[in-house]
Every structure is written in C-alpha cells, then in structure tokens.
Amino acid sequence: METFLKNLTSPYWWVSVVIVGITINLTSIYLQKKLDSQLSNASSWWRKRSEKETRKQLQEVERLKNNQQAQILMAFTEVRHHLKSIGALVATIFCLGFVGATFIRPEIFIRDMQYNPTILQYLRILGMAGASFNMIFSYQEMINAAKAKGLLIIASRITDNN
After folding, report:
1. Predicted TM-score (pTM) of this structure
2. pLDDT digits (tens, 9 = 90+) for 19-56
3. Are 151 and 81 contacting, i.e. CB atoms less than 8 angstroms apart?
4. Sign of the dihedral through C-alpha 32, 38, 42, 43
C-alpha cells in the first residue's frame, strides 16, 4: 500500500495515466466508427435475409393454400424429416453406448492387439464426434419438420377462413 501511495505522488505516474487515457480515447473513437459501419452492414444483411425468407414462406403458403396434393406432399415431407430425426437420435444413442462400453469393458475393443490406451482414446473421441454430429443432424431435421408443419397449419387456416 505504501508503494501505491508513493506512485500517486509521482509526476511520472500521472503523465503515464494521462497518456494511456488519451490513447484509449483515440482508439475508442476509431473503433467506434469501424464497429458502427460493420454493425450497420450486418443489420441490413439480416433485414434483407429476413425479408427474403418471409417472401419465400408466403409463396409456399400460397402454393399450399389451394393445392390439396401439395399439402399431402408437404405432410409427407414433414414425416420424412421426423423419421430422419429419429434415425439420427438412434444413431446418437448407439454412439454414446459405444463410448460407454469402452469405459466399462475396454478389453472387448482391444482383444487381439496389445493394450494401447491411445487406441481406446481415439475410439472414444470418434464415438463422441459421431454422437455430436448425429445430434446436430437430428436437431436440424426436427427444425425442418417444424417448418413444414408450420406451413401446413398456416395454409389450412387460410383455406378454412375462405
């Protein structure tokens, strides 16, 4: 604490604080201009993307609204996405079971070779990578199924109101 109080009375410390403060202020002004332009570009890109997605969804609803066959095909598309999602979840469970088995009974996987923990680690990493990939794929398919169902619901409500 004593050295800190000595530093407060030193002119060198005060000059360095002023210089650092000015440097931070100038840097923040420069970065603020750059960040403002970048955020503006990102915002306009996101707005255009959202408008494009909305137009695309409205076109799909218009197509489904008066076409019974298109609604049936969309229902099949929803079921297909659900089935792909369930299949990916089953594969995820299989991969996680494989990883668990390497912890419980590692001798099964390295029976004919010399015990090498590195091989076992690679198998575990591979199993976890497979589980992660399948989980992400399953989630994406579930989102696709929800989008298809949403389009069907919107189209059927519009048809019912007419």
Report:
1. 0.66
2. 999 999 988 888 888 888 888 889 999 999 999 999 99
3. no
4. positive
